[in-house]
Amino acid sequence: MSEVETKLAELGLSLPEVVPPLAAYQPAVLSGVYVYTAGQLPMVDGKLPVTGKVGAEVTPEEAKELARTCALNALAAVKSVVGDLDRIARVVKVVGFVASASDFTGQPGVLNGASELLGAVLGDKGVHARSAVGVAVLPLDAPVEVEVQVELVP
Questions:
Q1: 27-78 confidence digits (pLDDT tens)
Q2: How many helices and strands, by DSSP H and E, does the chain display?
Q3: Cα 38 to Cα 61: distance, rounded to the nearest angstrom
């Protein structure tokens, strides 16, 4: 087991199966020393645990947990193309989308779920640049979607 997966286990977590694509794309692509993930929904066992807009049907606290699930799914996607998460030199960028009620402005707090997980699992390698974007709707009426770019050890 890799050091990263050992750390996940210490946190009571494990990598899920890679979420199959919903359309014509790959869950992750390796290009040189970078891996780019597709947008990861908070799928658990092939299903969304909750749907709707954050600030309406979904609380910010629920959405933060869903962002954490998205980050786990992103790590699984990275592993699917590199084989070993210990090859991660650093997380470069996280982009998160939050399906938001019209008056919801707490997108950064929601995306902290993903950022905090990456920091807890990867330490300093998990510190990254980030965008947190509010949107009208996401695929399957998901509340949150996260994509990750990582740099690998050459």
A1: 999 999 999 999 999 999 999 999 999 999 999 999 999 999 999 999 999 9
A2: 3, 5
A3: 24
